[in-house]
Amino acid sequence: MRETSSYDYAIIRVVPHVERGECLNVGIILHSPTRRFLDASIHVDYERLRAFAPQLDLTAVQQQLEHIIQICHGKKQGGPIGQLSQSERFNWLISPRSTIIQTSPVHAGICSNPEEELQNLMKKLVLLEREQKDTTLSVPGKIAHQREPER
Length: 151
What we know:
A hairpin with a 4-residue loop joins strand 2 (24-32) and strand 3. The chain is an alpha+beta fold. 34% of the residues lie in helices and 25% in strands. It has one domain (5-128).
């Protein structure tokens, strides 16, 4: 049996009208310091997002979500934040903000496989039942979506 480790996670949300507080869950950021694991899994259902906020610039939303992944992975494209330690990057990503892309409060858990747990959380908190059957929709470190945003 694999040893278990603690982890923290936050739900990534699109909040089109910050003043209203309505949101659509689009991903999960998971950090397990003992496993040296920091990753995000993102799935955007653009059809639902368009119905929820027709005026939203979907290309800008996608770019911001891609930036989260770059920061998680410590990529150069993540800018100065992407060069920080994993814990510092996680704390920066989950810090409260009043922008269109926000995260939930942080929750904790215990698991033996952070990658697997990231997928479990995606199924439980982000994907609709019909989307859970398609395992290609939720790939850690990549943005999965049903339809490309209109350009």
